[in-house]
Amino acid sequence: SQTIHQWPATLVQPVGSPLSLECTVEGTSNPNLYWYRQAAGRGLQLLFYSVGIGQISSEVPQNLSASRPQDRQFILSSKKLLLSDSGFYLCAWRATGYSDGYTFGSGTRLTVV
Amino acid sequence: QKEVEQNSGPLSVPEGAIASLNCTYSDRGSQSFFWYRQYSGKSPELIMFIYSNGDKEDGRFTAQLNKASQYVSLLIRDSQPSDSATYLCAVTTGGFKTIFGAGTRLFVKA
Known about the structure:
Chain A is mainly beta. Helix content of chain A is 0%, strand content 58%. In chain A, the strands form two sheets. In chain A, strands 2, 4, 5, 6, 9, 10 and 11 form a seven-stranded mixed beta sheet that branches. In chain A, strands 1-3-8-7 form a four-stranded antiparallel beta sheet, with no helix packed on it.
């Protein structure tokens, strides 16, 4: 069965500091991978998705970036965090069938202070 | 802009009652419809999928889809306190993108 690992679970970072969140998937090859952000009381906002190594699509222009250095590894980064980057960050994978929903990682709660 | 709308709640129901959660969407080209449950501080988990008009039942959960009216609903029968969570409606038009609603908070009173 497929599992998705995401770390760290909680992060408190000062404004202007860098960020690196990592996500790995087990039990599947060439997964479609996603980074979502959930602000308090808001819906899930798609940040990036990737259909393969080195292939990144950005949905929201901002100071975040993503990379996929390996088939089952997806990394979310920032060079300088803003207060508005606070939120719950979720990595997810999804197959491409019309009936396939997302499997989410456990999430990272990021607070920028 | 494609939207998915949900009443934020909280929706409060007594234990054993039927909880009814509703969702409307704006894109008539939407193809697949999902319901996710999210406990406080946790990540969402998929609980229901529906793509054709009508009802789909899975245990105590029933998803209902009406494409003409552009709404999808989730019924939870015999609600339990453990059903207390936020329920997210999600709509996929095709391809790689899904739009999520902001969620409805459900509270089941023991």
